[in-house]
Amino acid sequence: MSDESLHGFPPDYARARTDFLAAARNADARLRSFVLPGHRGPDGEELAVDTAYLGPDAPQKLLVAVSGTHGIEGFCGSACQTRVLLGEGIARSAAGPATGVLLIHGLNPYGFAYARRVNEDNIDLNRNFVDHAAPPHSEAYEAVHAALVPADDGTFVPAELVARLTALRGELGPQRLQEAVTRGQYRHRDGLFYGGASPVWGRRVFETIVAEQIAGAAHVGYIDLHTGLGARGVGEPIFRGGEDAGARGRAHRWYGDALTASEEGTSSSTPIVGNTATAVAAGVGAATRLTAITLEFGTQPGPEVLVGLCADAWLHRHHAPAEAVRSDLKRLIREAFCPDDAEWRRLVLDRAREVFGQAVDGLAEGQ
Description:
CATH topology of the largest domain: Aminopeptidase
Number of strands: 7
Structural class: alpha/beta
Low-confidence stretches: 1-6
Strand order of the largest sheet: 1-2-4-3-5-7-6
Helix content: 40-55%
Mean pLDDT: 95
Radius of gyration: 19 Å
CATH class of the largest domain: Alpha Beta
Shape: globular
Distance between the termini: 44 Å
CATH superfamily of the largest domain: Zn peptidases
């Protein structure tokens, strides 16, 4: 089935980047690229973070939408940026004398190109924004690491992995297991949700973008596009903060009762550390009003998503990247983060259109 028949979702990173840049140029956006050094894509293509900006030189208000923080989740995020914000002209119509729109495409281009959630060093970029001199320790992850990444794993046996995960789920319960796995850990380089030992290239690029293209705006509406959690096809706006006292109430006015918060236990996401919204808040300072969310699109039940992650981690421990990306096992992580399902993709774009509209209206009304 062609990508056009599946509502314009790109089939690979190279096509996603080409389409995004073409749409941005068509909208007369100002482009900027940060090329990942030392790495190329599976077919030798350049890997880069690209930004497209529409609006005045010094916007008072700024809408920011980010795709591909978690690599493979960029298939969905790129489609939302390219087809909805650029293709339907929402970005252009939102930009005005005092308002700008900034699209950050493929923040983790290596993971995007190789259909991985992590970067070129098996690091979860959305857990990397911490103080690495004193990283947060996750004792809960220590109890699950051996089951996720067994020492003797020369052959991948899906049934054995499922049995281990089922036992853990029975022992800890689904909520505690999710918290243990996903919060972020900083000791096991081969593990899941590893936040790294120092700031990675993607973090440094993002912090540069924040300093040079986001800081200075009086009000920032921030949307980081993700997949893999929640009910299938549902786009959940998860509150990610803002340092002023009115941020939570403002986000609720924008996004309504659908808004959730990990720290309040209302979200499909448990609390996490070191995410991109943390970096935006730190970079813009307390004087800027920040209304930040993750827009999370559900795909599969949590256990199936975790199997996909474990299978992908095993695959890249035992095979070179160019071989791993073409393995049949990749279908597990692809279905976990970008299902080959036209109805799911239609729901995603419809919901993205709605949420982007809510953010544009919220900024315009100055609430």
